[in-house]
Amino acid sequence: MSEDGMNAGAAPPFLDMRNVSKTFGRVQALKGVSFDVRPGEIHALMGENGAGKSTLMKILSGAYVPDAGSEILIDGRKVAINGPMAARQLGIATIYQELALAPNLTVAENIYLGREPRRAGFIDRAAMNAGVEDVLLRLGATFTARDKVADLSIAERQLVEIARAVHARSRMLIMDEPTTTLSERETERLFALVRQLRQEGLAIVYISHRMKEVYDLADRVTVLRDASYVGTLEREAMTPAKVVRMMVGRDLSSFYKKEHDAHQSRGPLILCVRDIADGRRIQPCSFDIHEGEVLGIAGLVGAGRTELARLIYGADPKLSGSVAVDGREVAIRSPLDAIEAGIAYLTEDRKLLGLMLDMSVSENINLGVIGRDALAGALLDRGRGRRRAAEAIQATGIRTASPDAPVGGLSGGNQQKVLLSRLLETRPRVLILDEPTRGVDIGAKSEIYRLIDRLAREGVGIAVISSELPEIVGICDRVLVLREGHIAGELGGANGEPITQENIMAIATSAAKAAA
């Protein structure tokens, strides 16, 4: 148990998992893992996809039964969690990334689901509505017990899940990637609520890929790697470099190591955007990208980063402006026009707008170039498609049991690499990446960064839109900063100001620099 920073004088744990293992056939998903959570503590659980986090939590929530020899103690007493009902009776509530609510029912009906009060043999809805008012008030809900869940926002639905756990007098709350679909303001409200629940004595397990969230919230962090326990750090011992080293077995500095050098070997102009605007969000914007250059597009939420990319790609109609590729102006009225002009776009929402989740890895990779495999205008050369998919899987390091496996069953990082592979099969001259590492683990991020670096070395012009400033600083050669729909400033390049988080935020917020 290296790097274990536990305090000897800390409160005894509510939960103590000892030597927990889980085997599926010949695959060992957990190998003797130990994990504990104290009352009134936020304990973060981190690790790459496949590290064992989900398996450990499914054992805790009653979805899986651990192997013989595993021990789970609640308040020092050994227990058997042989189903979700047993977990709930022990005071354990889980809020999954995909919320488990019935949208056609009201807030009160969801909170009481499975334990409805009855009167004269009928469900007493008046009692349910009255019974949840105190909890909703305590959590600061702006909706009522009578509102239908279908009419609530994602953040409000998440609050219903938390209210259900609190109302059931749960003593421990497991939160799995709770901010994935939340805005910055909604995330701040969730953090305030999580801290409130900690103050009230709940034990909270917080699972996230976002290290900033962990540093903001966690009292301790436990790291798993390759199905095994790596270590636990107390808050005062947490540093980005230490946590990353525990997760991936290498230093943070290796993450953003660039082998391409756009300043020394920047190629000719490849993309030229002039005065592009939509008449609503985006004001006239102009910029260039050179061969082998990684251009960052930064800015606050709502600044217009995605809207600008969609205008260039033809996904949204433009009011004015022009786009040229390799010195030739191209008419882009649709994404198909953009692809034919050599521009590819990675959407920020890979599940809704990018991938066909029910289709196989191979089918998704081949989707954009299936016309190349036509024989006599009617039949498909499936062998060619299989070979293309196999080459792409090897080139981008996609981890899948088979090219025929459904892409919906892959981890977030591997799904992203499948979508990237599809785009690369179109042989783009310009690649626009919108939040390329959103919802992927640390290891997959590193692999995507290496792929971006390799493409730059091969002469592709790349634009990266990202909300993660360390990512922008680490991988980009120049950075455009958007504010309220226009390009407010530029950093980097041969003679520009340094690319730093402070400089980006100063431009994004129009804050005056100290040196001014």
From TrEMBL:
Key words of the record: ATP-binding, Cell membrane, Membrane, Nucleotide-binding, Repeat, Sugar transport, Translocase, Transport
Pfam families: ABC_tran
Gene3D superfamilies, alphabetized: P-loop containing nucleotide triphosphate hydrolases (3.40.50.300)
Every ABC transporter domain range: 15-251, 257-509
GO molecular function list: ATP binding
Keyword Transport belongs to the record: yes
Keyword check for Repeat: yes
Superkingdom: Bacteria
InterPro entries from the UniProt entry: AAA+_ATPase (IPR003593), ABC_carbohydrate_import_ATPase (IPR050107), ABC_transporter-like_ATP-bd (IPR003439), ABC_transporter-like_CS (IPR017871), P-loop_NTPase (IPR027417)
Family in the record: Belongs to the ABC transporter superfamily.
Protein name: Ribose transport system ATP-binding protein
